[in-house]
Amino acid sequence: MTKVGTETLPSRDDDSSPVVPVIITLLVLLVIVAVIVFILYKSNMFGVGDWIDKHIINRSRGNREEQEMEGERKPLAQVQGTGTPQQRKRDVKAVMHLYCGTDLFLSTGGAEKESDKKLRAVKKLHSLFLFMKEIPKKCDINIDKLVLDIRFLYEKSFADLDEDQLQSLRNGEFQTLPSSTVYTIVTNLCNFEKPTRGWDNPPLTNDTKLNDYIARIRSLWNDMCDGNIDVEMIEITHQKMRDSFGEVCVADEEDISREKKEKIIWKQLKPDCEVDGEVVLTEKVKEILEKLTDEGVAVCNGVIGSGKSMAMKYIAEKYIKDGWKVVWREKSLCSTDIEVNQDEKLLLCCDNMFGGVLYECLASKELENIKGLLDNILQSSKTGEVKLLLSVQSHVLKELNKERCVSTVLGNFNYRVDMDKLTTVELYLIFKETIKKGCKSHPKCWYTKTDFSNVQPLLKNNVGLVGNPFLLWAFAMNHAFFTDKKFPENPVKVLVPTFDRLKTEEPKSFYILTYLLFVNKHQKGTALKKWAQELPTCTSIEREEVEEIGADTIASYLHSEKDTIRISHEIFQIALFQSVSKTRDGLDLMLKFCELESILSICRPDLEDAFEDFSVKLKEKDVKILESRDRYRDLILKSNHPFQGFLKPEETLSD
């Protein structure tokens, strides 16, 4: 201390000023505040994180993006940075008038800066709008299949488009389509999850998933069309799209002036046809259900392979789920089939009534019995407790109408459903379903990439001998049929030489098919018939070989179930019968070992010209071989089969 007179003054060395402690205290407080803010930001406690993102980070990011955009986009820079202030004012005013529907007051200072922000927002929103039209090509979907679905499955939904727009749609050129059309495609067909508030409502502020932002583009665009521009939300949405898809395209004045100022309207797409399980719900399936409900009776009428059996099985399963008892029969019915218990409802189904391609030849007495039975069922159906569902092949029904009296059920056109007529969308869905079944073990199979438009010309070659569903199924099961343009015209004529080649190149495979043809159906786990050893193969056929259908050469011709294995389709049976019977040895094997019912169904006298393409012609000497077999005479006499003409007069007399 230094003494001056009687006063004592503080020396510089003993300075006790409070400035330094204050500064230190402030620094400590700032660090503490920074740590607290950081913790609150990371945990988003009290919404601090959202506030910082919204008011600090996004604003800074927006300024940086704007600088990048100004550097990249010369045309837009010219709007804001070239010409006199008056010219710039007019340019900005024109764009704002186009999208806001109002003339903003522009002057120097703050008002002009606000208008510049809105103009930039308009350009960014327009960029998002253009980008939305590119989303279908950026999603993880097969764009070719998407275009095919749009073309065939949703044709009615896009009926309001003109020819040029439809062509753009078929070509996958989304940029030239109306905005509402593209938004509908993106939201319905691009595998996006439905937003919280749906695709037709503005998302809430805290809805921040990608699908919400796609819905927000629509909402922001429609608001802009009403003259309202949410600059802040446009910036956030623009950044979200960049984060999700990468760089977003930048709109220029030409893009802005070219695009129509119209709101985006969303609609829920409904396919023109749908699939339930593996069954395509064609109009014919719906018609069958309606007739069963209204009339209690439905008769499915169509050529072989038109989908009758599949439709019936689908409907039978549907009735079972609804608590009905279902009785399923093949070719014929008997009186005990309609017996029901009290409080029980019955659906009686008979597939291939009177037989398949070549109808079962029945005696007049038996026909009269069936006619009476059907009439009785018809009466029972009026109570609603019994319903009747039949399928009859078209030519069988014609023969019955021409040569014999038929029941009221078969003769009433009100009960009939013509299964042969299918729409394009129904065939398209059947095509897709058959690919799933036929190419399960070959996910990279070339046929799965086949365009349906390449299949359509082949279906047009169908002359009506078989149904288009069979052709599509056959193409998927054996792709060689797809490459043969003659197959749709007459599958049997193509299949017979195919089986002939199989006999030469792989005789054991051929005779495995022959064995299954002769027995009609093999019960798995049971021994083969003794006569199987007489089939002319280099080595004997074993049971395991018959039951193993993994071989590609014959797998497509077989149908394996839990307990049985058989030839998969009647068309294959007919062609195989014709191939086997072409040689004397093969014909003798057929006449000696094949099930008699199958022979009488497929064979006709060589003098008869009916069903030339689908029958095996037998001479009288061949028929004589059949006469030595048990039950042949009884079967002939019980029916009205043409082979009765080969019997001696005394043999035709009933016992």
How would you describe the overall organization of this protein?
Helix content is 53%, strand content 8%. The chain has 30 helices and 14 strands. Helix 22 packs across helix 23 (507-519).
> Total number of helical segments?
30
Quaternary structure: single chain
Name the beta content range: 5-15%
Q: Widest sheet: strand order?
A: 6-7-8-5-9
Taking all residues together, what is the mean pLDDT?
Answer: 79
State the separation between the terminal residues, measured CA to CA. Answer: 155 Å
Count of distinct strands: 14
From the alpha carbons, calculate the radius of gyration and give it in angstroms.
40 Å
Decide which structural class fits the backbone.
alpha/beta
Give the CA-based shape.
Answer: elongated
State the domain count.
Answer: 4
List low-confidence stretches: 1-15, 64-112
